[in-house]
Amino acid sequence: MKKILECNRLTVSYDGSDVLSGLSFAINEGDYLCILGENGSGKSTLVKCLLGIKAPDSGKIILGAGLKTSDIGYLPQHTNLAAGFPATVGEVVISGCLGRRGLRPFYSSKEKETARNAMKRLGVAELADRSCRELSGGQQQRMFLARAMCAAKKLLLLDEPVTGLDPTATSEMYQLIGDLNKNDGMTIIMVSHDVVRSLECANRILCLCSRDHSFFGTPEEYANSHISSRFLGD
Amino acid sequence: MTENIRLMFTPEFFRAILLPALIGGLAVTICSSLLGVTLVLKRYSMIGDGLSHIGYGALSVAAVMNLAPLKVALPVVIIAAFILLRLSESSKISGDSAIALFSTTALSIGILVSSKAGITNDVSHYMFGSILAMNKSDVILSVILSAIVITAFIFLYNRIFSVTFDESFARATGVNAGIYNMIFAVLTAVTVVLGMMMMGALLISSLIVIPTLTAMRICRSFRGVVLTAGTVSVASFLIGMFMSLLLNTAPGASIVIVNVLFFLFFSLLGTVCRKRS
């Protein structure tokens, strides 16, 4: 297995105080990593660093397997974006191709094909001409996942993908993500609050417990460690 | 009324007054409706309004100090646009209160300075606009501006969509959202200053906001909203302009009223369509 992403002694601070300090971990192609941690533990900051939006103060993020930052498919944290916005599902999904286009102004037929395939894969193809205002929460998340798929070559970075979804839609979403990991060979990095679900589906766990303390290992190791007892309640 | 119509078609009036008004007005109308789509959807609608008040303050100061109005107002408004966008992005002070703070301050300074100096005539032009008094350099500037805005919308269309729809995703895909916000700030500032001279500080924000709102009543897609907003604003401008000449009403206010009528009509149309489907 090839290393696809490695964080090496990553330190990031906001307004002078460290949010992450000396964080190290590495994942391979095909891994399914869940990032756990309480609010304010630095999960969002880590996501920003991985996406190259924020530069770390020290340490390095090394991408392997020919991956570039713009090849990471990103699903942002749930927002009310689509609520009042006039855009069709097709328009939203194809905007995922933007990163790989460089300075060319228009989408090529190959990129349109990519978007069509992503919509088919996530079961939103028949919604392509619908306005995203009319979608249910679950459909919206699948639309955003399709957009992320357009950008993703090998790696999907999902920031709390099930927030705000009802139980059925949540299960569907987990099913879909697991499927993309197993059948499509996508490496998954998912920020999550759902510890139990994360332990079930992931093969790597990163827990940002406090500023200078973090855990990285397999779900079994995590379940046996003393850190997990705080989240799992023994 | 027949008198007015006859006057409208004398070649002198047409060439000297109506033609520059039409060209300049159309150019500014197109710019404000296109930029308006992004501003409204990013919830920056009030920026246009705030900038026009800041522009009013700058123009008053320029008039009192006997400086060329555009040379003072343009840089001031561009700088103000940067600051307002920055403030809207950071969470320390909320965007709309920042705009209120800036615009009332600038407006007060403008009125204070001009009332003290006893100049109210020129300055009231900027409050209510005077489209029939556009001079050649205003028209040239408007046309250049609209050429830039239209070109930007064609060639950067997909990026503009992405930055407008979801800035954090756009940044993640490697689009430099900061630069686009800056370009928007500058273009909006120039549009507002030019639009102010034609529509007046009080009405320019309506040119930015209403066409987009109108288009959003019936359009599902972003592309549809952009095209409809442009078309509706041009139609409103032409209808409002000729209405004002025929009925001898204030041009700026007439154009805004036609815009509002379009909005009401499209709202009705949207409700009917939704009921049917």
User: How many distinct beta strands of chain A?
Assistant: 9
Number of helices of chain A: 8
What is the CATH first-level class name of the largest domain in chain A? Alpha Beta
CATH superfamily of the largest domain in chain A: P-loop containing nucleotide triphosphate hydrolases
Strand content of chain A: 25-35%
Order of helices and strands of chain A: EEEHEEHHHEHEHEEHH
Structural class of chain B: mainly alpha
How many individual domains of chain A? 2
**Average pLDDT rating of chain B:** 85
Mean pLDDT of chain A: 85
Uncertain segments of chain A are none
What are the SSEs and their pairings?
The complex is a heterodimer of chains A (234) and B (277).
Chain A: E1 3-14, E2 17-28, E3 32-37, H1 43-50, E4 58-63, E5 72-75, H2 89-94, H3 109-121, H4 137-151, E6 155-159, H5 167-182, E7 187-191, H6 195-201, E8 204-210, E9 213-217, H7 219-224, H8 228-232
Parallel strand pairs in A: 3-7, 3-8, 5-6, 6-7
Antiparallel strand pairs in A: 1-2, 1-4, 8-9
Helix pairs in contact in A: 3-4, 4-5
Chain B: H1 2-8, H2 11-41, H3 45-64, H4 69-89, H5 95-117, H6 121-128, H7 136-155, H8 157-165, H9 167-172, H10 177-199, H11 204-218, H12 222-247, H13 251-276
Helix pairs in contact in B: 2-7, 2-10, 2-11, 2-12, 3-4, 3-5, 3-6, 3-10, 3-11, 4-5, 4-10, 6-10, 7-10, 11-12, 11-13, 12-13
